[in-house]
Each structure stands twice: as structure tokens, then as C-alpha cells.
């Protein structure tokens, strides 16, 4: 334990910082993609609905590792190259966006039909209904599912290590390979993940209570 | 679902015209994007027939099928270990006795919030220090079982909590003990409620086995990796493999949705355990 914190503290902190950055960027990307996909899926434009549906079906079901490998090692074959961090964040945002879209759609379905009819009858167009009536309520009612997406992204960010992004999991694995600390390094990392997950869950519960829609 | 139609239903002539115009425009944009992608592949010479031909030749297919078989075995064994463990932990967490409830809660919360890869690394390079050094198969399957049993336990618990309290009260009032009420009244119903969600969770299990890629267990993903080392047809192989995963998972999800429809038709429920079809867990 002593050795871990005296010798390897910089590596540990660098790993934690990488995990935090990767999770944050991917989660924001997921929210953006998920919102666009949800708008597509409830729009009156049939081809866009099909695109939204295809996107969700594809990325809900693809394993992250295979997407990571395609993006990182496959895309250069057709002349598209990103740096490793972008590859990881892009893959995770694509996956997270599909789950976010499904969460938002659950929230949209929870808004009663009368509200939408009322919104339309006062002259709001499709985007007006989405922006002022549907999405504000949808987001508020799916805080908890969105927190689950966040935690899912946090945990899956460890897979970025497979393509060489030095996140917390890869860092502790490398520390352990150098110093053979047994379980110590891994337990410290596990503790960090548990703390972040619990904090996210707590924050979600607080936000949900604060934002609860009165119906 | 009902609200969806009402976002745009009963549009007038102007609305219909706008929808027609945007539909046409979106078709053009989508077609343009598809053409662009195909062109990109073509320009890089990735569409050449010989780069795809191997996926029609039996030796290559056989090689990949062996990987798929290992994937199926790993996923199946993980499910066989994880589901009973999860049920046990869910019963533990809903127990009235604190000394059962707390360990079960800690187990569930820990394995739900720790990355699977970290647990795999613990088995690959942490535990061998202490003389625990099982086969690579178990170094993959045990972590998958641990992590998914945490998630599945919460699904079971949701099923248990979805039952109205009156059921247990009624059971106790006719003289059953708590353990009997759990066994004969709560579990049969709770398990039935969560069957669709459990099936949907198999998708996550199947995806989890791709971590074999990181620890060199020869499941489908690692097999594909080995194949590309030989053929050098990276993008083709990984796209084919990704398609195999997507198709398999879509089929499992459809089975889950079918089961959900069937079960919700036959039983009267007060609560919903969780939505089948969309598995929890990104991985």
C-alpha cells in the first residue's frame, strides 16, 4: 500500500484523470447523439425514423470491443485515422447514444397525449413541441436511467485500455506488472470506481427529486 | 407509444407538403452518405472481391465457427453460474436479517460498480500471486459471472419488490413461515416476472465474453483477431464479426420481447420489473 502511493501516485492519478475525461466526453457525446436519435425516432419523417431505429438496434447490440477495434484498427484501412482518445470516446459515445435514445423515448412516452395536443393547438410546430413540452419533461423523468447510462459508460471506459488508452484499469494493471503488488493496486482502483458510481447514483437521486415533474 | 403519433398527427395540407419535402430531402441525404461510405471503401480498395472471398470458404468459416462455439460456451457457463448466484443475493438483500442483508448488499453494489475488465485483470495477474491460478477459461467466466450476477440480482430484487405486500401478508396469515412464503408465494411469481429481463440480460453476457480478446481466450473476437494476423483483412473481418454479434443479440432481444408480451398477457401485474429488450449495461 505504502509503495503504491509513494512510487506510483502519478500513474494512478493520470489513470483516474484519463478515465474521468473519457467518461465525461463520452457521456456528453451520448446525450447529444441520443437526443438527436430520439428526435429522429419520433419525427414524422419515415426515412429519419428508420435511420434512428437502425442506429439504436445496431449500437445497443454491438460489443464495445469490436466497435473499438473497427474504429481504431479498421478505419485507417479506408484512410480515416483518429488519435486513440478520439477513437475510444467516439466508440463509447456511439454506444451510449443508443442507450440514451431508448431512455429518452421512455420519458417521451410518459408525457400524456393531452399535453401534446394542447401544445399543438396553441400553434407549436414539431420542434416547438419537442423543445418546450416533450424533452424538458422527458429528461426529468429519466434522470435515473441516464445515471445508469453514465455508470455504464464509466465502467466500459476500462475497455479503452484494450486499444492502449491509459485509463485507470490499464494503469493499475501495468503498475501491478512492474511491482507485483498482488491485489492492492486493483483494490484501490475498484474503490475509485465504486466511489464514482455511488456519487453518480446519489447525485442522480438528488436531481430526480429536485426536478420531479408534478402531474 | 401512444404519444408518438400525436406529435404530428392530423397535419393539414401545408404540413403534409412539408413532410413530403423533408422526407425527399432526407432520402437524398441518406443516399448521399451511403454512396460516400461505399466510395470511401472502394477508393481504398477494400471492396475488392478477394478481400471478402474468405468468408465464403469453409476452412475460414470453420475457424470462425470454432470461436463462436467458445463464445457460446463461455456465455452459457457464465449464465449457469450467474443466475442462481443472483437469485441467492437478491433473496439475501431482501432478507429481514441484517447479517444476511448487509453482505448481500455489499456484494451486489460492489460487483455492479466495478468494471469487468478490472475483475478479469485481478484473476489474470492479481490472484496468481496468491497461488490461485485457474485455467484462462475460468479467468474469463468467473469475473463475468461475478459482475453480471450483481446486475441480475437487482433485476430479481425488482421482481420481488414488484409483488404487492398483501401477498406475503396473506401467506403469513394462513400460517406459512417467512421462508415458506418466500419459497411458495414470492419466488414463483417474481421469477416469472423477470424472465424477459433475464433473457435480455443474456445479450450483455454475450458481449462480456468479447473480453476474451483482452486475455487471449479464443472466443469469436480473439479468433477474428488471429485470423486478421494471417489474412491482414482487418476491416472486413471485424465488420463480419460485428455483424454476427449484432444479429445474435437482436435475435435474443426479440425473444425477450416476445416472452414479455406473452407473460404480461397471462399474468396481472401491479408493477413492472424492468423493460425487456433494452439490456442494462454498456459493454
TrEMBL record, chain A:
TM ranges: 20-42, 54-74, 80-99, 146-165, 185-207
Subcellular location: Cell membrane
InterPro entries: AA_ABC_transptr_permease_3TM, ArtM/GltK/GlnP/TcyL/YhdX-like, MetI-like, MetI-like_sf
The keyword Transmembrane is assigned to this record: yes
Entry keyword Transmembrane: yes
Protein name stated in the entry: ABC transmembrane type-1 domain-containing protein
UniProt KW keywords: Amino-acid transport, Cell membrane, Membrane, Transmembrane, Transmembrane helix, Transport
Its membrane topology: Multi-pass membrane protein
Superkingdom of the organism of origin: Bacteria
Primary site of residence: membrane
Gene Ontology CC terms: ATP-binding cassette (ABC) transporter complex
GO biological process, one term: amino acid transport
Entry similarity comment: Belongs to the binding-protein-dependent transport system permease family. HisMQ subfamily.
Gene3D superfamilies for this protein: MetI-like (1.10.3720.10)
Amino acid at each position: 500500500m505504502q509503495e503504491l502511493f509513494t512510487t506510483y501516485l502519478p500513474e494512478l492519478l493520470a489513470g483516474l484523470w484519463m478515465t474521468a475525461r473519457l467518461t465525461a466526453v463520452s457521456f456528453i457525446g451520448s446525450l447529444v447523439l441520443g437526443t438527436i436519435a430520439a428526435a429522429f425516432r419520433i419525427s414524422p419523417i419515415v426515412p429519419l425514423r428508420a435511420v434512428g431505429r437502425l442506429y439504436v438496434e445496431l449500437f445497443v447490440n454491438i460489443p464495445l470491443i469490436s466497435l473499438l477495434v473497427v474504429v481504431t484498427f479498421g478505419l485507417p484501412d479506408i484512410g480515416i485515422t483518429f488519435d486513440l482518445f478520439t477513437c475510444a470516446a467516439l466508440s463509447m459515445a456511439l454506444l451510449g447514444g443508443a442507450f440514451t435514445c431508448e431512455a429518452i423515448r421512455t420519458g417521451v412516452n410518459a408525457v400524456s397525449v393531452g399535453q401534446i395536443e394542447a401544445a399543438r393547438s396553441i400553434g407549436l410546430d414539431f420542434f416547438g413541441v419537442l423543445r418546450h413540452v416533450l424533452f424538458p419533461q422527458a429528461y426529468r423523468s429519466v434522470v435515473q436511467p441516464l445515471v445508469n447510462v453514465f455508470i455504464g459508460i464509466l465502467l466500459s471506459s476500462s475497455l479503452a485500455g484494450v486499444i492502449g488508452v491509459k485509463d485507470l484499469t490499464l494503469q493499475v494493471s501495468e503498475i501491478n506488472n512492474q511491482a507485483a503488488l498482488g491485489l492492492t493496486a486493483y483494490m484501490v482502483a475498484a474503490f475509485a470506481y465504486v466511489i464514482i458510481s455511488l456519487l453518480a447514483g446519489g447525485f442522480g437521486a438528488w436531481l430526480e427529486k429536485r426536478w420531479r415533474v408534478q402531474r | 407509444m401512444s404519444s408518438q403519433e400525436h406529435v404530428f398527427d392530423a397535419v393539414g395540407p401545408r404540413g403534409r407538403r412539408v413532410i413530403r419535402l423533408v422526407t425527399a430531402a432526407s432520402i437524398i441525404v441518406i443516399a448521399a452518405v451511403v454512396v460516400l461510405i461505399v466510395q470511401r471503401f472502394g477508393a481504398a480498395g477494400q471492396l475488392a472481391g478477394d478481400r471478402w472471398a474468405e468468408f465464403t470458404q469453409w476452412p475460414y468459416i470453420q475457424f470462425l465457427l470454432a470461436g463462436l462455439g467458445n463464445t457460446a460456451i463461455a456465455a452459457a457457463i457464465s449464465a449457469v453460474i450467474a443466475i442462481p448466484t443472483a437469485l441467492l443475493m437478491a433473496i439475501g438483500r431482501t432478507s429481514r436479517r441484517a447479517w444476511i442483508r448487509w453482505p448481500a448488499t455489499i456484494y451486489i453494489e460492489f460487483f455492479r460498480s466495478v468494471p469487468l475488465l478490472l475483475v478479469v485483470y485481478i484473476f489474470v495477474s492479481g490472484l496468481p500471486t496468491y497461488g490461485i491460478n485457474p485455467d484462462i477459461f475460468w479467468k474469463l467466466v468467473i469475473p463475468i459471472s461475478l459482475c453480471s450476477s450483481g446486475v441480475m440480482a437487482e433485476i430479481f430484487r425488482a421482481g420481488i419488490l414488484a409483488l404487492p405486500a398483501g401477498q406475503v401478508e396473506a401467506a403469513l396469515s394462513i400460517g406459512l413461515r417467512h421462508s415458506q412464503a418466500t419459497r411458495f408465494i414470492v419466488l414463483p411469481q417474481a421469477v416469472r416476472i423477470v424472465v424477459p429481463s433475464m433473457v435480455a440480460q443474456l445479450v450483455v453476457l454475450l458481449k462480456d465474453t468479447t473480453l476474451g480478446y483482452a486475455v487471449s481466450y479464443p472466443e469469436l473476437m480473439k479468433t477474428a483477431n488471429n485470423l486478421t494476423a494471417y489474412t491482414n483483412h482487418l476491416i472486413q473481418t471485424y465488420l463480419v464479426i460485428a455483424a454476427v454479434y449484432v444479429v445474435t443479440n437482436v435475435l435474443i432481444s426479440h425473444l425477450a420481447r416476445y416472452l414479455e408480451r406473452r407473460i404480461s398477457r397471462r399474468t396481472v401485474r401491479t408493477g413492472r420489473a424492468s423493460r425487456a429488450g433494452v439490456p442494462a449495461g454498456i459493454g
